[in-house]
Amino acid sequence: MLTNPANNATVTYHEGTQIFTDPVLEYTPGAASAFVVDRHEYLWTSFFREALNTRWETHNGFLNGRRIFHTDFVDGKHFEPGNPDFPELANLSTGLTINNSCVGCHTNNGRGLAPVAGQLPNTMAVKVSSGSTDAQGNALPHAYFGKVLQPQSRNGGVPAEATVNLIYSTINGAFNDGTAYQLLSPNYSVQVLDQAGGQVNFFSPRMAQTIVGLGLLEAIPEATLLQRHDPNDSNGDSISGRAVQVTDTKTGDQRIGRFGWKANIATLEQFTADALHEDIGVSTSMFQGPACGANQTACRNAGPAGIELSDVRVNLVAVYMQALGAPARRPETVNNADVARGEQVFANLGCGGCHTPSMTTDYGHPLAELRGQTIKPYTDLLVHDMGDGLADRLTGNATLNREWRTPALWGLGLTEAVNGHTRLLHDGRARNINEAILWHGGEAAASQSAYKAATAVQRNDLIKFLESL
Ligand code: HEC
Ligand code: HEC
Predict the structure, then answer these.
(1) What separation in Å is there between the alpha carbon of 436 and the centre of ligand 2?
(2) Is residue 261 lining ligand 1, measured as CB closer than 6 Å?
(3) Cis omega (within 30 of 0) on the bond before 23?
(4) R_g over Cα of the chain
(5) What is the average per-residue pLDDT within 239-252?
(6) Distance of CA 209 from the midpoint of ligand 1 (Å)
(7) Burial level of 175, CB count in 10 A (0-12/13-18/19+)?
(8) pLDDT score at 31
(9) Ligand 2 atom 10: the closest Cα is on which residue?
(10) How remote is the CA of residue 125 from the centroid of ligand 2, in Å?
(11) Which ligand is nearest to the CA of 448?
(12) Alpha carbon distance 102, 276 (integer Å)
């Protein structure tokens, strides 16, 4: 039993599994912000764990924020039976919405549901735009439908916006050794429900992302991201990578965006307010009033006019995500020979050119727990041109549509335990890690070709390594 002195929280582990030595807990020198996952605990709760160095003050915020993250904004019920309900949050979801709670989309703090052919599940969000962007390249909202399509309305006078239908076609391919593979290529069609809104030509379906370790990603200094920012590939490694510039809604400051599949939000606090507004239909001081487009008159008139959730509560949700630990590597496989070889394959294929193995957080983050730690997130937090195969249709700018933020890979091996599926990539089209790699193009084309050229043993080793994360 491992006890966190700050809060007496305990984590069980197996004596003798070398849990406290490298490379199991390799995320930090003291491994303080990692959490330990026991081999018998690959459960749906694996992403609920608090970082082991959480202080008492933060722990309180963590618990209160968790309650908000896990409560339904319609009936005020906690999603896990046996936990106290939060009646004050009931009926705060008004107007246009997609889902009732944060955890309703981030299943068990992981990804959303596997997208199968048919209507998109209500754990996905479909971003929309006018087709144009601001000066920094961020999509501008659709004049009527706003930033996100809401398929559901809680107000009889306001029509729901649209649903999106998905069909898959099969792409056949083969590795260089002749082994065949198949990929699922999605084809989306928007069914507009509110005809006053006109057509939706620019849209981007997104799967909900895993929310573990985000505080550590928030604590990586902007200077580190800017050091890697190389939009014109001046270092000639055929990987460019762009730090996305965004405006912080709370302060008005220019910041580097790091959250979301396109990295267009800089802070967890703003992400919380944005998700409350667009996905659940709850207004806050950052995004006041209902989630409507500029010309969506009935929606605008329906309100609410004021603020439904206080700044204190928005911040608690951010603290919850900041204090959720990053999973330590899986102790039972981390020392296996195939995993060790796979780590070498990862390096040889150039995966680390974007999935940067190691980063260091600085001393500027408000939570002391997150400061000065060497972490292993396997992301550079930059957006990369990933080729036409992965492009969305969010804007009229084909280059921007091909860009995606490198996802962190920590916790990848826990996807199935947490989510009950292994769907990956921004819209969940990849059925597993192998397919996710095969979809890589653009700046990652060389890595993808090298993967196809690798032997079956090397490919298997690579996947074993990724599953050990
Ligand atoms: C309708 C489903 C849905 C709901 C409800 C929802 N999310 Fe999300 N979440 C998503 C999707 C989709 C993304 C990816 C968005 C993007 O690409 O910009 C996401 C991404 C995130 C991210 C970024 C993670 C990363 O790795 O960059 C955070 C943080 C987040 N959500 C927090 C929340 C919080 C907090 C709530 C509740 C207030 C919430 N979400 C409610 C679907 C949802
Ligand atoms: C040029 C940058 C780049 C390189 C090189 C690269 N990746 Fe990626 N990777 C990305 C981006 C960006 C995404 C997200 C793409 C999307 O969702 O459409 C991604 C997604 C993934 C995912 C899915 C993660 C998730 O959460 O859905 C895996 C797994 C992955 N990469 C593994 C690899 C491996 C293994 C290699 C080397 C063979 C590699 N990547 C090389 C940028 C890169």
Answers:
(1) 7
(2) yes
(3) yes
(4) 22
(5) 94
(6) 6
(7) middle
(8) 44
(9) 406
(10) 21
(11) 2
(12) 8
Percent above pLDDT 90 for the chain:
79
Model confidence pLDDT, tens digit, residues 156-170: 999 999 999 999 999
Distance between CA 388 and CA 112 in Å, rounded?
24
Indicate the top mutation candidate among 271, 381, 394 to test ligand 1's pocket, ranked by most ligand atoms within 8 A of CB. Answer: 271
User: Is 24 a residue whose pLDDT tops 60?
Assistant: no
d(CA 177, CA 37): 37
For ligand 2, whether the C-beta of 406 sits within 6 Å is: yes
The residue written with tokens 């010309």 in the block is: 295
pLDDT of residue 34: 63
Select from 279, 321, 409, 429 the residue to mutate for testing ligand 1; criterion: most ligand atoms less than 8 Å from CB: 279
- Residue bearing tokens 């955890």: 103
Nearest ligand 1 atom to alpha carbon 204 = 17
CB 426 within 8 A of CB 406: no
CA-CA distance, 31 to 326, in Å (whole number)?
A: 10
Sign of CA dihedral 317, 262, 110, 115: positive
Q: Rounded to whole angstroms, how far apart are CA atoms 168 and 284?
A: 38
Q: Whole-angstrom Cα distance, residue 185 to residue 33?
A: 38
Tokens linked to 181: 């593979």
What length does the chain have? 469
- 296 close to 306: Cβ distance less than 8 angstroms: no
Q: How far apart are the first and last CA of the chain?
A: 22
